[in-house]
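Batch manifest line 342
LIGAND: flavin mononucleotide
JOB: complex structure
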Amino acid sequence: MLKIGNIEIDGYPVLLAPMEDVTDVSFRYMCKKFGADIVFTEFVASEALIRDVDKAKTKMKIYDFERPAAIQIYGHIVESMAEAARVVGSAEPDFIDLNFGCPMKKIAMRGAGAGLLRDVPKMAAMANAVVKATSLPVTAKTRLGWDADSIVIEDVALRLQDAGIVALTIHGRTRSQMYSGRADWEWIGRVKNNPQIKIPIIGNGDITSPQKARQAFEQYGVDGIMIGRGAIGRPFIFGEIKHYLETGELLPEPTAKEKVEIAREHFLKSLEFKGYPRGIYEMRRHFALYFKGLPGFKEFKLRLLQSLDTEEILGTLDEIAERYGDMRVQTITYYDEKAPKE
Ligand SMILES: Cc1cc2nc3c(=O)[nH]c(=O)nc-3n(C[C@H](O)[C@H](O)[C@H](O)COP(=O)(O)O)c2cc1C
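JOB STATUS: finished
ARTIFACT:
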């Protein structure tokens, strides 16, 4: 069982990773629908929260249907993170997650996100300051270390536990790997199996199939797994994983027609939550990924990505369903594109 504050998840907890520009409310809705146990917002900058920036406030809006849900914050100033945690409290997330893993230059080089892996005492102090500033449970998400020569995750896990962090997600890469290479689950397993570690450990990195999910639980003993890129264009992965872990049976790839229905619902939710035209613009990054791999899809893709007419887009989706019908093509996901080929 995965326990975070009052949240208790039995069985095989599968969490949706925080992803900037991806895990907005419409996408979270879809992942939840297919069985994601906990969802995370995109990360929100502590400084923006304190300055009351509208976009930051929108990002931290949580709806009841998606609970349990966490708001993730990042920053490089201890006091600002504590202040931001107080602001976040007003959105009433189920818990607050601290980003200690973002590798992006503009964030890590300023000492936020993965930058804190180069100053573990500061990371722990920041975690502790946030824990003290809020009555909500506080979790953290980090990487193995700055680079292969400075893997600090074992020490980080102990220090964060001491600082009052109630669960830790480990992405099995270093900062210098960014998103390349492979997530090293051996390190995740090592932390999980350290008898001094009492807090739940959630493993993250490269889970793109039910079989990989099973391996994470069985081989490394983690308390939960978190899925990022493997869910983009494939929010149904949560259902596939749950079904496989509970029954040992692999579900068939959804047909093109079924994917159209999933993409249509996602699109309508995007419009509902964001309005026109933002709901269309922000759906564009998802549309093509639902249908990647379908032969001759380019013409439809252009239409989906260029139109600003809701009815026209819905009509294109109908045409896709008609043209491809029961065809089952394993989508080539965003993940596959970004990962190095073997
Ligand atoms: C587009 C994108 C945006 C991301 N944004 C965040 C973020 O806001 N906060 C965070 O902790 N991690 C972020 N990540 C990292 C993911 O949460 C996750 O740790 C990483 O992608 C590895 O998991 P995966 O192999 O399942 O994708 C992002 C990743 C991607 C691909």
